[in-house]
Amino acid sequence: MTFARLVDQDRPAISFILDGSPIEAKRGDTLLTAIMTAGQDRLRTSEFGDGARAGFCLMGACQDCWVVVNGQGTKRACQTLAEDGMQVTRR
């Protein structure tokens, strides 16, 4: 597992779809937090050939965590709150 949830265990559970598979999250999680906590080890593969990428700055300044949300363009996973039923695809 990449990330482990240490606090806020009692927040309501939600789920969304990542590349066709359900991901469990807690209300208030960003997409990046939810994806990493669910054991996913990457958001994309680097176009420069240096392997899997899972976010870099974690504050919305880079492009390492971009995902497509509900088929409507790219969003930064580190800045986008997970919502119940959301459809997310990795670029």
Strand content: 25-35%
Number of strands: 7
Shape verdict: globular
Radius of gyration (Å): 12 Å
The largest β sheet comes out as:
5 strands, mixed
Low-confidence stretches: none
Write down the overall mean pLDDT. 87
Q: Strand pairing plus helix content: what structural class? A: mainly beta
- By DSSP (H or I, 4+ residues per run), the number of helices equals 1
In what order do the strands lie side by side in the largest sheet? 2-1-7-5-6
What letter string, H or E per element, gives the SSE order? EEHEEEEE
Distance between the termini: 22 Å
Helix content: under 10%
Oligomer: single chain
Give structural notes:
- The chain is mainly beta.
- It contains 1 helix and 7 strands.
- The chain has one helix at residues 31-37, and strands spanning 13-18, 21-26, 44-45, 52-53, 66-69, 74-76, 87-90.
- The protein has a 5-stranded mixed β-sheet, with helices on one face. It has a two-stranded antiparallel sheet with strand order 3-4.
- A hairpin with a 4-residue loop joins strand 5 (66-69) and strand 6.
- The protein starts with 12 loop residues before the first strand and ends with a strand.
- The model has no long low-confidence stretch (mean pLDDT 87).
